[in-house]
Amino acid sequence: MTPPPNSLEARDIAVQVHAAVDHRLYEETGGLVIEEGEGIYVFDNTGKKYIEGLAGLWSVAVGFGEPRLVEAATRQMSKLPYYHIFNYKTHGPSVELAEKLIEISPEHLTKVHFTSSGSEANDLVVKMIWYRSNALGKPAKKKILSRLKAYHGVTIASGSITGIPANHTSFDLPLERMKHTLTPDYPREKLEGESEPEFSARMAKALEDLILAEGPETIAAMFAEPVMGAGGVIVPPEGYWAAIQAVLKKYDILLVADEVICGFGRTGQMFASQTYGITPDVMVTSKQISSSYMPLSAILMSEEFFAPIADESHRLGIFGHGYTASGHPVATAVGLENLKIIEERDLVGNAARLSPQFLGRLKALEEHPLGLWSRGVGLIGAIELAPGATPGATGRAVQAAMLEEGVIARAIGDALCFCPPLIITAEQIDAMFDAVTRALDTVAATLSQEA
């Protein structure tokens, strides 16, 4: 339906270029205008209330409208609204947040660098890896590994590491240095009779075969999400991470854990690397670090990773990288207060405690005529829906029906994905999935009539 003339929707179409849309379709239909947020809810410009079942973009841990974050931003804006961390300068909020991150992170991660988004952070990590290889006298060791269906961002380097065709097609990506191995999607990709450990061993063998084909001396690092988010919430099968890490260690390949979605409690522990026994050389965080109230990301790295970079900067006289907003004082002040709230309100514990109910309600959807299989961990999960004649059609239809029922979630293909704010309650989980069930019923009835 075409938006009314002079409405906010029509004005938006006239001037704004959006992310992740069919632009010509958007010109015809417009978008949903969200005006307010409170707790796990958002409200559109007609006043309709929605449960935000994806926490915005996998990110609003403490909910919408948290006054402490507004106050933290206001205080810092009044005191020091902007400064940088270039040229031997710093400021209090960036130092204090870096210290807090080191305190709560795996103990071998001892250095922090701030950027403004997960894409930007992963892009910089690629540059640092290349810089480090040169520092170590290994100029050929530059290739980066990732996985099909992985999502690591959309800048040129991080978009190349991403393994989703829509982020490559017509952008001339991926770069030649970026190579992709198999997706650990056990329910979809398992062989007949293959157990999870056997499947994981096969994934590790495929990774090793790729390394040997490319030449171990040419491969610097592998980027991987502990749980794959935008690929459809793909949860690693039993034995996967132990097998993958063994291969990387065998060939002296760094591991970068992309915790942009998983970090700060999403899996029921502070970091998903702890949930799955991952020991990364670098850990990339964003989204829930500030509940996305401010653009912020943090790269955490081990001393072993950092030392050659520091030595090379000393040899050259400079580490020739930086962004104007890196370590922005307002963003880091908000991030620090956000982490305090996560700790004080035990939101990591809340995710762990409510996970059985959340995953149980997802699993119950398998019994619906449109449900196939569910997966998840902590408070992130998905239900795979029976595909229609066109891939993704069922997912789009259910996503639209959920909006009518007052729930926002995300259909990735025919996978319906959920990642609610960590403050969600047991009653709100039931309300969300009750509405999802009604939406599934609506779509199933429509498909039955069409048949």
UniProtKB/TrEMBL annotation:
Q: Name one GO molecular function term.
A: pyridoxal phosphate binding
Keywords of this protein's UniProt record, alphabetized?
A: Aminotransferase, Pyridoxal phosphate, Transferase
Query: In which organism is this protein found?
Result: Pseudooceanicola albus
Q: Which GO terms describe its biological process?
A: biotin biosynthetic process; gamma-aminobutyric acid metabolic process
What is the top-level taxon of the source organism?
Bacteria
- Which family does the record claim for this protein? Belongs to the class-III pyridoxal-phosphate-dependent aminotransferase family.
What are its cofactors?
A: pyridoxal 5'-phosphate
Q: Which CDD domains match?
A: OAT_like
Q: Does the keyword Transferase apply?
A: yes
Return the protein name.
Answer: Aminotransferase class III-fold pyridoxal phosphate-dependent enzyme
- PANTHER family, per database record: ADENOSYLMETHIONINE-8-AMINO-7-OXONONANOATE AMINOTRANSFERASE
